[in-house]
Specification:
- The complex is a heterotrimer.
- Chain A is built from nine helices and 22 strands.
- By secondary structure, chain A is α+β, with helices and mostly antiparallel strands.
- Chain A has two domains: about 240 residues, Rossmann fold, CATH 3.40.50; about 120 residues, Beta Barrel (OB fold (Dihydrolipoamide Acetyltransferase, E2P)).
- The mean pLDDT of chain B is about 90.
- Classes of the chains: A alpha+beta, B mainly alpha, C mainly alpha.
- The interface between B and C is large, with 98 and 97 residues.
- Chain B: It is a multi-pass membrane protein.
Chain lengths: ~375, ~270, ~280
Amino acid sequence: MSIRLTNIAKTFGRTQALEPINLDIHDGELVGLLGPSGSGKTTLLRIIAGLEQADAKPAGRIQFGERDVTQVHVRDRRIGFVFQHYALFRHMTVFDNVAFGLTVMPRKERPSSGEIRARVHRLLEMVQLEDFAKRYPAQLSGGQQQRVSLARALALRPDVLLLDEPFGALDAKVRQELRRWLRHLHDELNFTSVFVTHDQEEALELSDRVVVMSNGRIEQIDTPEALYRAPANRFVFEFLGDVNRLEGDVRDGVLTCGDARLAVSELDDGREELLLRPHELKLADAPSDAAQLPVTVTSISPIGAEVRVELEADWLPAPWLATVRHADFERLAISRGQRLYAIPRRWHRFDDATAKPRQATAA
Amino acid sequence: MQRIGDAPRVRRILVISAVLLAALFLLLPLVAIFAQAFAQGVEVFWRNVSNHYTVRAIGLTLFITVLTIPVCLVFGVALAWLVTRFSFPGRRLLQTLIDIPFAVSPVVAGLVYLLLYGRNGWIGNWLDGYDIQLMFAWPGILMVTIFVTCPFVARELIPLMQAQGSRDEEAAVTLGASGWTLFRRVTLPNIRWALLYGVILTNARAVGEFGAVSVVSGAIRGQTNTLPLHLEQLYQDYNTVGAFSSAALLALIALLTLAAKASLEWRAARQEA
Amino acid sequence: MITLANITGSAPKRVLPGFGLSLGISLTFVSLMLLLPMTSLFGQLSGISLAEYWRIITDGRVVASYIVTIGAAAVAALVNAAFGLLLAWVLVRYDFPGKRLLDALMDLPFALPTAVAGITLATLYSSNGWMGRLLDPLGIQVAYTWVGIALAMAFTSIPFVVRTVQPVLEDLPNEVDEAALTLGASDATAFRRVILPHLWPALVTGTGLAFVRSLGEFGAIIFIAGNAPYETEITALMIFVRLQEYDYVGASAIASVVLAVSLALLLAINIWQGRFIKRLHGGRG
């Protein structure tokens, strides 16, 4: 079931939570709404669900497939909603929680109790909680509760599954596991899913496409890969990873900042700020022709396949971060206090927060 | 763990003085009620309690209470649902207004009802034309009792329902529940103990209200005398044992209220653990 | 002007059910049971001139009742502040046999009908009562004096202080104690400089509520007060006396003073509390 939002806006009192937004989500897609808190992502999700009403002016439209659901009550939208803190009914067992949606159906449509039991057990099996049917939510771990809430949302076979920060309250390891599991479930059952997250790693790992939001605006909609490679603007670039800043005066194709120099033949003269990703920095014993950026190592932390190195220099207002491979780390025998030269492989430049980027590959 | 005031001597002095003061100030009166009621033996107590006028007073008090509770229950739940589940202009004001009965002196409460529904009031005057008299009759007692007790249920529910938020109800709505089903299956189980406690408080106050009721009742023995009014009359007639026999019945209800509260709190604490 | 129609009519569709129903019930109830009766007071008073109103509410006997009521209520509130703080502290901080009983006992004054409390206190403190017999030889007269009035007021309003201070004290994290002690404060200093400021808003609120309650209290007081004109008559009794004389205007005038003072105090407490909460919790009340 595809989702199409046309001209959806939302104001709370005087603050505009969402500027008029257009968004197309394809059938079977898993889409992440990513943004800092207050960016409007949860509001957007709740509007899709029907838990929140979009502004009457401008008159927006929400369609599920061909069906216009703008005026349809949340009860009748055929959505499954997974709440941030699960919102499990604490006074009901796991079984009763999952069965709830089936038991409140009008008597005519309601499946027989035998069928309800079978369906709930199938769902619990799917979320690997068949042994927990008689337990109460308080007796489960956070990850288990989240799975119950997912099973509950899926019990009515919704067209669309909506998840509000589904893994926000869980610890890192469980989160990782559940993410993989959700992706798997999504591919298997093939429904359309939208989830909200403020964790860029989660959005990039899980989504087919990511919608990056800030201040009630959609900044970019793209596949994770495209998003990382070609951020539409500075906000997206900064939000998707660590950023090093280099600010200086450009003259005759060379940017100068204190005793640091970098060849930037593409740029015109004037004040410039360049942005660099940590993995786009190479460390070396000596400066290159294009880059003379002397730095001092202030901190080293090996994390996974790489080593994170923090760099400082007189000409830097804030420290830089570089990630280097273990092989390079050992070759250079990097230690704290050591003086090295940073050599950018690549840098990025944005005219302002929303304008199109320019990128260049340095020597 | 080191805490302020943990020194054994400080502790002992504070605990002993608190217990002594509480015993003198709170427990002693309680004991005195029963001592006075049984001062001339169980038989006299029983004779006093089974006296015609006392029985009529008990009957009227129960009658008023039984009518008051459902009214307060419906109003309390409706108001709590309204102010905790929706936002609308005037929500804050409404929440403040229900505290009025707590701030108003019971005598003033009785007075305003008397002014409105009494024979000199504009509604009372109009009703008088149809030969309906509300004041100095049980409907008047019922009305002022509802007035003084109406905040209890709402006041118990509002903070709880505010703290719980509407997430559970929203979840139920996404699962297709509506109206009465939603309230009965999702909201009610979450608020039942607070609701019960609110009813217990309503009951205690309804049974024991004195000031407001004494203004509107007319205190006709055997007809519009509630138990508290009845014991006042006995006391004024220097029938101390009789007065305290009725007082003992009311004190018993108070004790049951305290016990119910303690057990509800104990249950809540156990659920949290 | 807010009308039912423009609240329900123009508002967007609501997610949860029951808005119309609960609004209808609440508004009907609040207007019929709470607001409408209140208006009758003003209706009654609109018939008299301001001068006459002023004469009634400044009548010598009535003014004497204000003084008795406010004086006794102030004493009761202050006693309750100290006693309530002690009880709340002991109940939260210490474990001792009978603690749960003591805790339950705190609600007795709310649960016990005021008339019952009234006749009990009057009997206990009369010259041949259990307490009266002890106090009489010492020359302390409680029943039928303003001391008795203050005692009855203190009895009915003690739970206000205990029950507002108790939860705040319970929520006070242990680190506050520990921080004060590691910084070298003595118990007394730590209590005064660290604990008390935390409890202050609750203590003032509780004491304020106790005071308001005492101003309007009737049933618990009239039995022990003696009700001697100019000496031990409380204002609520004055209203009652006027009513028995069928002087509805006089009763309404005095009642309007009591009502205005109570509502003003309650409003002041609410505003003051709101500001304190803002200071402690930042922004949202």
